[in-house]
Amino acid sequence: MTTVLPRTSREVRLAAVPEGLPAPTDFTVTETAPPAPAPGHVLVRNRHFQVFGGLRTLLGGAAEGTPVPGLHPGDALYGPAVGEVVVAPPGSPLRPGDLVTHLLGWREYALVPVAQCLPLDPALPEPAAGLSSGSAAYGALTRLAGVREGDVVLVTGAAGGVGSLAGQIARLLGAGRVIGSTGSPGKAERLTSELGYDAVLTGGSWRERRDGTDEHAAYRAFSAQLAQAAPDGIDVLLDNVGGIQLTAAVDAARHGARFALVGALSGQLAETGAGAAAPTRIDAFRLVVKGVSVRGYTGVDHPDVEAEWTGRFGAWLRSGDIRLPLTRFEGIERAPRALWELTRGQTFGTVVVDLPGHG
Description:
The chain is α/β, with parallel strands linked by helices. The chain has 2 domains: 9-132 and 324-354, Alpha-Beta Complex (Quinone Oxidoreductase, Chain A, domain 1), CATH 3.90.180.10; 134-301, Rossmann fold. It has 10 helices and 15 strands. Strands 3, 4, 5, 6, 7, 14 and 15 form a 7-stranded mixed sheet that branches. Strands 10-9-8-11-12-13 form a 6-stranded parallel sheet, sandwiched between helices. Strand 14, helix 10 and strand 15 form a beta-alpha-beta unit. Helix 2 packs across helix 9 (305-319). It is globular, with a radius of gyration of 21 Å. Residues 20-353 form the Enoyl reductase (ER) domain.
């Protein structure tokens, strides 16, 4: 059976380095010739790809020290994607029609090395679930924080792709009380009513200072909310934000608390700078006398997590023990808008661009 190859493909390219947070005008959606099949590679028709806040750092020219390359004007963007194999080389374990995950999203067709394609777990109830950021939350909570029965857990940035799963995972691992933070009352209500958070704090957002809120006043307000939600302190922090929320968490830590740092949105999504720094004031004396551990989490340091997470995630989804909130955009032309809304705090959960049939 002869495979009919596509005539054209579209991809999102960086048109100009953003001044501040990225805007749709910083990108172009370009029609190109599709990539030609090549030895050792599979041609994949993408069905869905993820939009994530970390792109801000890659776009700002400050990716040095990160495990992935930065982006320059004219480059196509990239990120996690789910697609269907169109052409596979002889001897490959993949076949046309197979669904795979890879890291060449932001385009309709991708030519991906076979070794960089993973078959999509058939246990997942829908393909877009393969784009969840839950492995970071799961790895941080199991490998770094070691959630124990009855722990009080704080998740900052709880309405994002990582945070919206982290609270649920912490509960499934035995946490006794789960507290989140987010930037709006509407998101806070969804976190408690839909995702099982016991309490959600809405102060302390780095975005508040766009309106002139004094940093120290924002810190005091957030600390007061945290003290009310966790009067006896916290055992575990899964931090996606940094900034004054991390400062307040140190103050609220119980003896032997374990902090896992997954993101730094206070810097990555700041209106100024390149998104590669998130300075935070931490009382080192409190860390010492309380015996608090603080560790950063990256998936490359824990290669065993992905397979373990995928198995547990599929089972939890099928049983209804966990929910995957998605904000969806249809069509590659809407991808720049999706990034605009995400970086301005207008999305909830994992942000996915769905690609309808093309070719």
